[in-house]
Design brief:
GO molecular function (chain B): metal ion binding
CATH class of the largest domain in chain A: Mainly Alpha
Distance between the termini of chain B: 88 Å
Strand content of chain A: 5-15%
Structural class of chain A: alpha+beta
Radius of gyration of chain B: 30 Å
Keywords (chain B): Heme, Iron, Membrane, Metal-binding, Transmembrane, Transmembrane helix
Number of helices of chain A: 9
CATH class of the domain at 47-154 in chain B: Mainly Alpha
Strand order of the largest sheet of chain A: 2-1-5-3-4
Number of strands of chain B: 0
Order of helices and strands of chain B: HHHH
Oligomer: heterodimer
GO cellular component, one term (chain B): membrane
CATH superfamily of the largest domain in chain A: Alpha-helical ferredoxin
Shape of chain A: elongated
Radius of gyration of chain A: 22 Å
Strand content of chain B: under 5%
Main location (chain B): membrane
Transmembrane segments (chain B): 53-76, 96-116, 136-155
CATH architecture of the largest domain in chain A: Orthogonal Bundle
CATH topology of the domain at 47-154 in chain B: 3 helical TM bundles of succinate and fumarate reductases
Chain lengths: 253, 160
């Protein structure tokens, strides 16, 4: 760094960027205890690093039994959604400096799904709801990949927002209706249904709407906007749900 | 734990005392959306949609009805001090106010009951609790609606 004020820069560089951060992690191991407990870890970390880096430091250097999911670690695979400081976020997209490292950083598994160990939950109910809305292209005549299916850019734009979903479950596990009995389809499934309902190439919109007209479908949405707040991809989830409701009301009448 | 089997090299013993063994396996927690024999085949129908629409539409109508009602009863022409048996009797002499009050009674009761029904569905976790709370709710709703309707239609201004 060739700056005129070299002295000052050198003085700053000499200071360590590391700060001491407390990670307060919700630990659960069914083989040891039936109860989950909070455990504190203190570590030296650069505040510009991510929460995931902190978890890695703990797992690699302090306690190898800490269990969590992560795959790509760059906000695309959707494996590491967790409840950080009481909000659902991706650990790999949350910088430590952004969540007040002066206080302990709480890390919990996402709510509403059965915890298997530490931060790992059983995602099966979530994916069951996803499968229920048939998240694949359905056409009347032929589903075979015969030729390219063309679409205007406006038609593509119609459902662009909901194609961004990475199935991390941050939205569904932030939904208070899903917390109750887990029967509600959940925002993620509705978002992925929306992606096909409003796709001009797809011809099973009627079927998908009928599935979401279920007792536990879109009508259980209370528009609390928790899902929109939680989405790490910035999808306007509540708006997508409202569009599905509107389509259900206006499709026949 | 008697370790007769030798673990593969590189794998240490499991830390901590295990609560469960092969003969005493950990309890299986059933996944919430799992399909079982008890799962109803189809819970689809337009009732939830109708209820959702009803809430929106009745809400709009109720804003007019209730604000009008409050204005007439409490604000305009002398305010709350003018309300008495004679005032109510005078208003109910006109079919217009009878229909107004009847509509307000029905819409407000059904709107409120449906709102509470969704609250019960969202918050009561056990099926038994739901059944009892909803039973109580429907009984109270039907009773109030019937009583109110009866009074509006059979109101006698010369009652002694």
């Amino acid at each position: 760094m060739a700056t005129p004020v070299l002295d000052k820069v050198e003085a700053e560089a000499a200071e360590s960027p590391y700060i001491t951060v407390t990670f307060r992690i919700r630990r659960f191991n069914p083989e040891v205890s039936a109860d989950a407990v909070w455990e504190d870890f203190h570590l030296e970390i650069d505040p510009k690093e991510r929460v995931l880096d902190g978890l890695h430091k703990i797992k690699w250097d302090l306690d190898g039994t800490l269990t969590f999911r992560r795959s790509c670690a760059h906000g695309i695979c959707g494996s590491d959604a967790m409840r950080i400081n009481g909000k659902n976020r991706l650990a790999c997209k949350t910088l430590i400096k952004d969540i007040n490292p002066e206080k302990p950083i709480t890390v919990e598994p996402i709510k509403g799904l059965t915890v298997l160990k530490d931060l790992v939950v059983d995602m099966e109910p979530f994916f069951q709801a996803y499968r229920d809305v048939m998240p694949f292209l359905i056409t009347k005549d032929t589903n075979e990949p015969t030729r390219e299916r063309l679409q205007s850019s406006e038609d593509r734009e119609r459902f662009d927002d909901t194609t961004k979903c990475i199935l991390c479950a941050a939205c569904t596990s932030s939904c208070p209706v899903f917390w109750n009995d887990g029967q509600y389809f959940g925002p993620a499934a509705i978002v992925n249904a929306h992606r096909f309902i409003f796709d001009s190439r797809d011809e099973a919109a009627e079927q998908r709407l009928e599935i979401l007209n279920d007792r536990d479908g879109v009508w259980r949405c209370r528009t609390t906007f928790n899902c929109t707040d939680a989405c790490p991809r910035g999808i306007e989830v509540t708006k997508a749900i409202a569009e599905v409701k509107k389509a259900l009301i206006t499709r026949r009448y | 734990m008697s370790t007769t089997e030798t673990p593969a090299p590189g794998i240490g013993p499991v830390e901590g005392e295990s609560l469960y063994t092969v003969d005493n396996p950990a309890p299986l927690i059933e996944a919430p959306r799992q399909r079982t024999k008890k799962t109803p085949k189809s819970t689809r129908g337009n009732f939830e949609m109708a209820a959702w629409l009803f809430m929106r539409l009745s809400g709009i109508v109720l804003v007019v009805l209730v604000i009008g009602h409050l204005l007439i009863q409490l604000v305009l022409d002398g305010g709350v001090s003018k309300i008495g048996f004679a005032f109510v009797a005078g208003r109910w002499a006109s079919p217009f106010w009878q229909v107004w009050d009847l509509l307000m009674l029905w819409l407000a009761m059904l709107h409120g009951a449906n709102g509470l029904r969704t609250v019960i569905n969202d918050y009561a976790e056990r099926a038994d609790t739901r059944l009892w709370l909803k039973g109580l709710l429907y009984t109270a709703t039907v009773f109030t609606i019937l009583l109110g309707t009866l009074v509006i239609f059979t109101f006698d201004p010369n009652i002694r």
